[in-house]
Amino acid sequence: MTFLDELRALLGPEHVLTGGDTDSYTLDWRGRYQGKALAVARPGDTEAVAAVVRLCARHRVPVLPQGGNTSLCGGATPDQEGGTLLLSLGRLNRIRSVDTDNDTITVEAGCILQAVQQAAEQAGRLFPLSLAAEGSCSIGGNLATNAGGTQVLRYGNTRDLTLGLEVVTPDGRVWHGLRGLRKDNTGYDLRDLYIGSEGTLGIITAATLKLYPLPVARCTALLALPGVEEAVQVLSRARAGFGAMLTGFELMAGYCLQGVVRLYPQQRLPFSGASAESPWFALLELSDSESEAHARERFEHVLGEVLEAGLATDAAIAENVAQTRALWHLRESIPLAEAAFGKAVKHDVSVPISRIAEFVRTTNGLLQANFPGVTHVIFGHLGDGNLHYNVAPAPGQAEADLLALQARIYQVVHDSVHAHQGSISAEHGVGQLKVEELTRYKDPLELDLMRRIKQALDPDGIMNPGKVVRV
Question: Would you identify the family this protein belongs to, as annotated (predicted)?
Answer without folding.
Answer: Belongs to the FAD-binding oxidoreductase/transferase type 4 family.
